Request: fold
Amino acid sequence: MAEISCDDRIPDNIVRLSIKDPQAVQSAYECGKLVILEDARIDADYAFLSSIPSPKAAHPGREKFCLARQERWKGHDRREAVWHKFETGPFQGDPEGYARFQREVKSVNGQMNALVEHLFGSLPFRTRSITWKFQRITGENLHIDNLQGCQKLAQIRLFANLHTAPRVWGIAKHWRAYASRLFETASLEEVLHDYYQFNTRLSVAAFGYSHHTTDDPRHVVTFNPGEVWLANSAIVAHQVRSGDLLTIAHYEYPYKGYVRKTEALPALIRQLGVEKLGYLGYHQKVLSLKLDPRRMGIG
Ligand SMILES: [Fe+2]
Reply:
């Protein structure tokens, strides 16, 4: 079971929930809580998986691989090239090891997909991806994610530690606390219409760049092998303090799928604009009419 060390200077935003209550999980997730699934565990051969060195990545430090089930592929595609990196990298000359790795990926991905479907199966998913991260992280700065596609789509982000070593995270405050405090000094009014840029600017203003270190208070959570958790990383500040092999299921869906619609990123930004300016900015009005200001040449 995950160990939690709470910092009582900030709100407690970590909950342990059962997969028997999917509604509670979705609601807590949307509100930016860190959700630890107390009765879910990914079953895998952690020792074997932990022994696999990462293939070389195009950009060192970004050892992220989208490993889908191979048998579903038709012809050559990008994912086939990803598998090829493993076959010709860590499993060069070891076909048995490679086959074992494929079986593990198939099993783990199946378990991850089943969990997301069980918890959020009624959502109209637009994309379904599972990424394996072979990154040894020894500390990163607190940050708020700027997720590609966040202008139109929310993401379910479900994580599992696949390494024999624990994974340690820091969890700080909700997006709202930083956005409200820094609205004027970070000139956030200028990016109210662009959610990706908004989160980029907000995160840098709140914590500095990724190579910086902030001493803001945070809770610290230690996840053991196989443990599963969810974090809406675009609206809660977080960091990896240490960790190795991780898998993430990230499924995209329209914001209208939210149960707590006022907690969605576009709604949070809209509320903030109204609270700070007393009215919706012009770009926000355009967005609320579902028009894209950039296509209209005014973004
Ligand atoms: Fe992140």
Confidence is low (pLDDT under 50) at residues 69-76, 295-299. The helical segments are 22-30, 46-50, 78-88, 95-120, 175-182, 195-207, 265-277, 282-288. Residues 3-183+211-259 form a domain with the Jelly Rolls fold (CATH 2.60.120).
